[in-house]
Amino acid sequence: MVLLIMVLSSGVCSADNYVGGIPLTSAHSGTVSGGVYCDSYYGMGDQEAKASNTIEKTFTVPDNANVEWAMLLTNVYCGHMQNNYQGKAKVDFNGKNLGTETLNVPYTYSYNGGNGHVQVNDHVNRVTSDYMMYYDVTGLVKAGKNTAVVKTDPLDSSFDGRIRLVTLVVAYNDGSKKTIWYQVNRGHDADSYYSDDEMNENYIGSTAFQAALPEGSSLTDSKLTLVYQASSDGAYAFNGNALSSGTPQGTFSGSNTWDVKDSLKSSGTNTLTYDRTASFYKNVLGILTAEYTTSSSGDSTDDTPADNTTDNGSAGDTTDDISSDNTTNDTSSDNTTSDVPAGNTTNDTPADNTTDAKFSADLGVQAIKVSHNSAAKAWKNLVNTVNVTVINNGPEKAGSFALELYSEGSLLESKPINGLANGATEAVEFVWKPEDAKNYTLRAVVVPGSTINDANATNNELSKTQEVMHNGYIGDKPLETYLHGTVKGNIIYDYGNSSYVKVSSGDVYTAGHSLSLPEGAIVKYARLYNFWTWSATGSSGVIPSMSLDFAGSSLTPEAEYADQKGWGQYDYPTGTWAYNVTGLVSGSGNYITTVKNTNSDAENSFCIDGIALLVVYEDASGKETQYWINEGCDAVSTMSSSGGLTPDEATVKIAFAGDSIDLGNVDNARLWTTVQSGGHEGIALKFNEMSISGVYDSTPSSNLDIDEARDVTSYLLSQNNEAQIIAPSVTDNSGDYMIPSSAILAVSYKSETTDDTNITDDTNVTDDTNVTDGTNVTDDTNVTDGTNVTNDTNVTNDTNVTNDTNVTNDTN
C-alpha cells in the first residue's frame, strides 16, 4: 500500500481588510482511484428578485463511482452588503432535507469593526451580501443522477433571495488502478475595490495546497478547479505562473479548470493567488488533484486509511484557524506600551522638571498616517487628520519634547509632548486642510527638549508623500437659480411616464408627458430636464453622446450640469441637461421625448433616471405667484465607499435670493425638490428652520425621487430663503449616494395685489384713500391724499389711486 503524507494548510493571507471574508482552507483531502467530480448551477439572471425562488439541479456522478466523500454547497444573495434583509432557504438533496436555514443576521465591514464574517451556525456563514451553506452528503450521493433543490422565501419586503450557486463535489473510487491525490479548499473570500480606494491596499487572496507525493513517484496529470462569484472572472497565478481567465457561466458566478501539471510541486506548498479584475470578486472553492504512479502502483489505493482525510469539521473550526493566522500578522507590538516597566510610571514628576539632569533617550518618528474620518485618504479643501506616532527607544525615559509637522516645507503646527517612557509610543494628531489636489510631502520632526540627551538624530524625522485629491462627493455645486419672476397663474412640474432605463449604443429611450392646463392659459416658460447617470464606455466614465427630440423637434441643451466622483472605482459622471421648450409647448396635450445614444462604441452606455417637464403659465383666474427655478447637479455620498465624508460635507445648498416676499399677503408657499438616486429615509430636507427626513421615499422611483409641492408656508422668510438636502450618516442604514438636481419655490398671494394694493388696468392706488361700497375705479383714475370715495361712486378716466388705499365692498 502506498501512503501519502499530508500536511494541512490554512489560509496564508488574511481577508480583504475593508469588507472582510473567509480565506479558503482545506475542507477535505485524500487519495482515490476515480477522481473528483465537480459540477455547478450558476444563476441569478434567471430568477426574480424579492420573491420565492426554487432551483433544481441534477448532477450526474459517474456510473461506477464508489463515493468516498461529498459536499453540497449553495449560496444565496440577500440584497445588501450590510443590511439585515431577512429570508429563509430550504436545501434538499436526493429527497432528504439537509436544512431549513433562517437568514437574518446583519453584516458589518471589518473596517467598521466587524469580524470579517458572520457565522450563522456550523455550516452557514454570511460575507457581505451572500449567505453560504454547505453540507456533508457523503452518505446520500449515488452513482448516476442526483438532485439538489434549493428554495428561498423572503421574510421581509427587502430580501432578494436569488440563488447564485449550487455546487456538488464528490471524491470517488472507481476500481481502477489510478492513484489520485486531492485537496478541496473551501472559503468565502471577498476582494473589493473598497480596500484599494479607502485603505490604499491591493488585496490579493491566496490559498495553499500542500502534499508530499511519495518519493520516486511520477506525476501523470494535475488539474486545478476554482469556483468563484463575480460578474467578471479574476486574475490568477499558480505557484507564480499566470493562469488564463475565462467568462462567468452565470450572472455572478463561474468556474475555471486548468492543467497545472507543469507547475505542480510534488512536495511542499502549492499556492494559488487570485485578484479581482472588476469591482467585486469572491472565491469559494478550490480543488487540486494530482495523479501519479509509483513502483508499487499495482497496490490498490482504495483502502487508504481514513487518516488521510483531514479537517472535515465545521465552519467554526475554519474561522478559528483564520483568527489564529491573523494574529500572527500583527506587527504592531512595537506600538504598545505593555512592556513599559512599572518603575517608569513616575516619569515627568515635578522633580524631573526642576532639575538639570538629562535623560538618555532615543526619540524617533515611527509612522505618519493620513486619514479623513474613517478613510485612509486626504481630500482637497477638507479637514484631514495626520496621526504621527513617536517612539522612545530608550534606554531611559524622555522628558518634555516637541513634535513638529511640516507640509511642503512649511510648518503646520508644533505640539508639546510631556514625556515618554522607555519603549513607549504615542500617537499625536494634527489637522491638515490642503488647498490643492497634488502630491504633498509631509515631514514630522522630533525636537528633543533640554532635559533629553538624544545621541541618535537619524530617526528624529520621517517624511511621507501623500496624494491629495478632490472628492466629487462633497456638496460643492449648489443648485443655482435659472429663472425668477412673478406670474398670474401657476406652475406644472411633471415627470410623465418616464422611468429608469439603461441606454446602450444606438438604443432609443422614450418618455411621454400629458399636460392639462386651464382653459385660456398661456404658456410663459417651458423647460425640459433630462436626468442621466452611469455614463461609461467599458469601465471608463465619459460624458454621454446623445440626441434628444421633443414634440418632433431636435434640441440641444441650453444648460448642461454634471458631477463626478473623480477618484477610485465607479468614477462615472452623472448630469442634468436642461432644454428650452417654451415655443414647443402650446397648451394641454401629449408631448413625447426621445433620447438616443449616438456613441458608436458597442461598450458605451448611460442610464436615464427620468425626464421632467416644467411649465410656467399665465391664467386670468389664477393667483399672483412668485417663483424661483433652481437647477444643477451635485452628486454627494456618505456611503462607506465615499472617502469618509460626513453629512455636513455631503450637503447640497439651494438659495432662493432676489425680490422680497410680502409675508402678510402670502396664501401658500410650495417647494419641489428632485433627487436622482434618492430613496433613503435618512435623507434630510431643510428649508430655513424646517428640518425633516423620510420625504425621499422612492416616489415616483428611487432613481428619480421627487418631493412634490411641499407646503413650506410656515417657514417662509421675507427674503434669502434657503433649502438644503443632506445625505444621511454612514451609521444610518449605510449612508447614501444621491444627486439633487432641481428645486422650485412658488409663493402664491391671497389677492391680486402686492403691498396691500389691488392693481388692475394701470390703476395706481395711493396715500390712504378709502374707496368703498360699490366704487368702480378704472382706466387711469387718480384719487389721492386721503380722499374718501364711497357708496357706489364711479371714479373713471385718468384717476390715479395709490399707496395704502383701502379698496373694499364690490369695488371694481
From TrEMBL:
Region (Disordered): 293-355, 760-812
Composition bias type Low complexity, residue spans: 324-355
Domain of life of the source: Archaea
Domain (DUF3344) ranges: 17-291, 472-747
Matches recorded under InterPro entries: CARDB, DUF3344, Ig-like_fold
One of the Pfam families matching this protein, by short name: CARDB
Signal peptide segment: none
Domain CARDB, residue spans: 361-464
UniProt protein name: Uncharacterized protein
Organism: Methanosarcina mazei (Methanosarcina frisia)
